[in-house]
């Protein structure tokens, strides 16, 4: 029993270190968590699942957790020492949302952790706050959507204006639900039957997506890297809504494609796969680190018709003028469509930053449209769901440059089930909204150069 308790304490210590890195130092949770899971891959699968669940859950419910702590603590979260604040947050998440962990164990482990990290003098405070919350949690009421869904008020208000109260609630609630792991199959490398046989042979549960046969969801696996189909480059982690970029671009054999902000390379790989070894996809990004990520994926997927290049999308490249059949501009954005995967975005994004990003997108678009040859296509996409970065920028593009929206009718494969999660507010644009189907929020617009 002692050994199990020690393991529990060590797991919680790992969680606390991740939360400190994310909440106090501003690191990205998906990077810090994946680095931690890689470092501690010797742990049992159940231990790693616990670390993942508590880390992500604490970040998903942060606004609500702080509200609860502030109800029962004389010292408010904003005034606490960072270690104690995050220790209470992760412990309260377990008290409210993890029935399998006894409340007494949560309180005891938190006290031990405070002592272990030299906060002996605060162990009574930690114990008192947690035991009070444990007793009173049945009476808690979250009377605003912001608290209920743990979404900043300004963000919820924006969604209410843009999608109505019901739509805003559906979007916010979707980010607190577990979403499937989607992968796209590289069918130029292996057949769907080969891929499925390989995955199921390793105990993976494979669920096909009706109307989009190269997309499957997978569960019951340990690591992506542990799967033969991933190591062989037969599958690539990619959300369904993101895969629509490649579907709508619909490249022809032999096309030359430039992806101006490509890392880690999922959309570029999709296009290279669709070209079946013909043509060429030039995947660009800003830093050597991002280019290295793309190159890793090119090697793993053995994409012979794709290359990675370091280039700042804001800097005009005269050698690319009117050369590309297709330009993909999946640009830096607020990421409000993927809060379920990256919950820390909620707490770092502001209305001012959102406006700055919309302006940056316009700067990049005013450069990269010039790489499209006459008659060629520009695809502008984001993983966000606000009108400013999406429809307003698409309308601006069409008004400013010799680009006309492309009718999406006939290009939208995928069947009525998939498209039920989308809306077309402007010609040539499609917005996938979270909460209708288990896909990311995502915006895609398609233009032809005149």
Structure description:
It contains 18 helices and 13 strands. The strands form 2 sheets. Strands 5, 6, 7, 8, 9, 10, 11, 12 and 13 form a 9-stranded mixed β-sheet that branches. Strands 2-3-1-4 form a 4-stranded antiparallel β-sheet, with helices on both faces. α1 runs antiparallel to α2 (29-39), α1 packs across α5 and α5 runs parallel beside α7 (123-136). The longest helix is centred in the first third of the chain and has 22 residues, at 2-23. 41% of the residues are buried. The chain has helices at 2-23, 29-39, 45-60, 62-72, 82-97, 103-116, 123-136, 145-149, 153-174, 192-201, 228-231, 240-249, 266-274, 288-301, 345-348, 351-368, 391-400, 415-419, and strands at residues 181-185, 205-208, 215-219, 235-237, 256-259, 280-285, 306-310, 324-330, 372-382, 403-405, 422-423, 429-432, 442-449. α14 (288-301) links the parallel β6 and β7 (306-310). With 450 residues, it is α/β, with parallel strands linked by helices.
Share of helix among residues? 40-55%
- Discrete helix count: 18
Radius of gyration (Å)? 24 Å
The number of E-state strands comes to 13
Give the N-terminus to C-terminus distance in angstroms.
72 Å
Shape verdict: globular
Unreliably modeled segments: 1-5
Mean pLDDT: 94
Structural class: alpha/beta
Largest sheet descriptor: 9 strands, mixed
Amount of beta strand? 5-15%
Short key terms for the protein model shown above:
450 residues; alpha/beta; nine-stranded mixed sheet; four-stranded antiparallel sheet; 18 helices
